[in-house]
Amino acid sequence: MTAPVALICGVSGQDGAWLARLLLEKGYRVVGTARDAQISRFGNLERLGIRERVETVSMTLTDFRSVIQTLDRARPDEVYNLAGQSSVGLSFQQPVETLESHATGALNLLEAIRFLNPRIRLYNACSGECFGDTGNMPANEETPFRPRSPYAVAKAAAFWEVANYRDAYGLYACSGILFNHESPLRPERFVTQKIAAAAARIARGEQRRVTLGNLAVARDWGWAPEYVDAMWRMLQQDEPEDFVIATGERHTLEEFAAEAFRTAGLDWREHVEVDRALFRPSEIMSGWGDASRAREKLGWRATVRMPEVAARLVRAWLEPGDLAGDGNGEASRRQAAGSPASRPD
Length: 345
Description:
15% strand, alpha/beta, three-stranded mixed beta sheet, 12 helices, 345 residues
């Protein structure tokens, strides 16, 4: 029997690497894209020990010719669109690049699939940022989008493109509306990794303080290896459908920092400074999601919640190579995709 083929756009990122590992474990042939595969280090694939098992190709999502040629050569059964500018903060400085990388990129994929092979199943990475401020109620699939950043605007545009092509042309195309999800593969420019790295370095005496923005913002933080499992499950359904993926809990950035520093044996209040220059022009004070539909229809639920997420990130900095952040070294690397309860059936 021929192995199914998955094309992961943005395989070098956090989610792309974890997803590649998951699909390889399931017997897929995995092809991953980067803007220039010949010079990309694919560091996250290296850290997971799967670099040699993933075929890599050069593709630029904003170039339609590049997209259609890659699809024609790879002939995938499933396409996972995880590419594009991924930082909310950076999107305020690079709004055009952010919009094009998500909206134009998704549109090119949809058009290429429509022309080449409408039987290809497409997963598109959307974001809980699209909901804007959810207040005291978690967002679900019926909650209106009210984006408050160029990043969220771009993700919302891509979401509606996917919905339109699904309705107009009958494509199997769906979006996962994922809230924040972390792992040691996150770049340090993300605030969770910034905090975890600082806690570890301060514990080792390598620095004294860390500067953060608004500590009152609240987010729904989950564990990335569990979230890529939800992506795969979405493409195994009989009919395409969009799903919110979240823990259903919200915590402030102050709480996250407190948990991270506690893991390192420190009191966060002695080492954290707030700088209003780091506040965003328009901020989401409360963002969290209700993943009830995913639990009912996909059989998926988050098992790693914020306190453990923060602790795992710090432990991974304290013990380099411990990608599960549980202090078990090599065993952690083998089991980094999470607990058995969160693994695919």
